[in-house]
Design brief:
The protein is mostly helical. It is built from 15 helices and eight strands.
């Protein structure tokens, strides 16, 4: 806005030798900032300064210099400094190296637009990246840019493509109770209860192999999930906290599993309170590869009547589906699964044939009961009418004069 003398209250506009107009202003930090481009008309420069002034007054101003950092530099620093589990950090570095940096790393934060993000995503899919990996890469970029917004480097996150971070995978197989036991019975003795525990508690692989004697309360029928073991890409094993705050939880154990755990711990668990509950043949920490080879997983899965692509993680799906079918609420499922959001829990509350049949049967029983009550009322009314016909209800009663 201009004052009575024709001078602006906020910022300056000057005419360049080229005939175009340049706008500048003092930021809240007292440093002079130039508009990122020049203007053909003075009025355009004035309007740009008015917008900047309103942002300053509303507290929404961001320092444009902070956005002049290459996304590659900022993103790598984010992955290194952000609080992440080591396996998650390795996964993010892989996504960054193969799917993000080659396309977006050279672009400055301030120059990233929704159109740029849309083109990058289309290029990934066009180059043959799977929808799953593309969605994961998109979620990583969105998370990094959310931090950039919080840091005041950009005004808003350009990752605004609806459903771009979602990927609908094929529904995972689940086992019946009979199939769980059929699979467990085919395992070597030391791994039998591992299969049952995975299916009937819904714990993750890393949470199960990280259990120690002190985490198992057989008298209270509870497992205390306080840690997990993660296998890194180079083969090392790392003990850490569960995947999220919600992952730290107490999981009630079905009575049938308590007796199984008691026998297993007596035979196979490590010594002392810190002894691992589930261990390899020589007492070492379990690793996915060694476990798969030791039990001949693919063959055992088929022998138990399960599909060839059934994974150990599908036992967790089985446990969560059983809990859902037993009538657990969404909040109860979230606790049991160790999830902080409803999204995963709702997956297990999708209608299933068996559950839908139970609902239909219960509905039918209510309908039958309601019809019987109506029929009883009708019969009672009919009996009253018949009694009235035999008595005085239908006769002429003389009226006293």
């Amino acid at each position: 806005m201009a004052n009575r003398k024709g001078r602006r209250r906020f910022g300056w506009v000057r005419k360049l030798p080229s005939g175009r107009f340049q706008a500048s202003y003092l930021g809240p930090d007292g440093r002079r900032r130039m508009a990122p481009e020049t203007f053909e008309r003075k009025g355009d420069a004035d309007r740009w300064l008015s917008v900047v002034e309103s942002e300053v007054l509303r507290g929404e101003w961001t320092d444009p210099l902070l956005g002049r950092v290459p996304f590659g530099e900022y993103g790598q620093r984010w992955i290194t400094e952000h609080r992440l589990g080591e396996r998650t950090r390795e996964e993010y570095r892989s996504l960054w190296r193969h799917h993000v940096a080659p396309y977006l790393g050279h672009i400055e934060l301030a120059e990233l637009s929704t159109g740029t993000i849309r083109s990058w995503r289309a290029n990934l899919l066009g180059d043959g990246r799977s929808e799953d990996r593309t969605a994961k890469a998109y979620r990583l970029v969105r998370a990094i840019l959310n931090t950039a917004v919080d840091d005041g480097r950009i005004k808003r996150n350009p990752c605004r493509i609806k459903s771009a971070g979602e990927h609908r995978t094929a529904e995972r197989a689940t086992a019946s109770v009979a199939q769980v036991y059929a699979l467990a019975e085919r395992m070597p003795d030391r791994f039998r209860v591992l299969v049952l525990a995975a299916a009937f508690t819904g714990l993750r692989w890393g949470e199960l192999i990280g259990l120690r004697r002190c985490d198992v309360d057989l008298d209270g029928s509870v497992l205390y999930v306080r840690r997990r073991l993660a296998q890194l890409s180079r083969g090392g094993m790392q003990t850490g906290a569960p995947k999220s705050t919600a992952g730290v939880r107490n999981v009630a154990v079905p009575a049938v599993l308590v007796a199984e755990l008691r026998r297993h711990i007596a035979r196979f668990a490590g010594l002392g309170a810190e002894g691992l509950v589930f261990r390899g043949e020589k007492g070492a920490m379990l690793r996915r590869g060694n476990f798969g080879r030791a039990v001949e997983w693919p063959a055992m899965v088929v022998a138990a009547g399960l599909p060839a692509g059934f994974h150990f993680h599908d036992l967790r799906h089985t446990g969560n589906q059983l809990a859902a079918n037993s009538g657990a609420t969404t909040r109860e499922l979230m606790h049991r699964m160790g999830h902080g959001s409803m999204r995963a829990a709702l997956v297990y509350q999708h209608a299933t044939t068996d559950r839908d049949r139970n609902i239909a049967d219960a509905l039918g029983a209510l309908i039958d009961a309601g019809r019987k009550d109506d029929e009883s009322d009708d019969e009672g009314q009919g009996q009253d009418d018949e009694d009235g016909d035999d008595g005085s209800a239908g006769a002429l009663v003389p009226v006293a004069q």
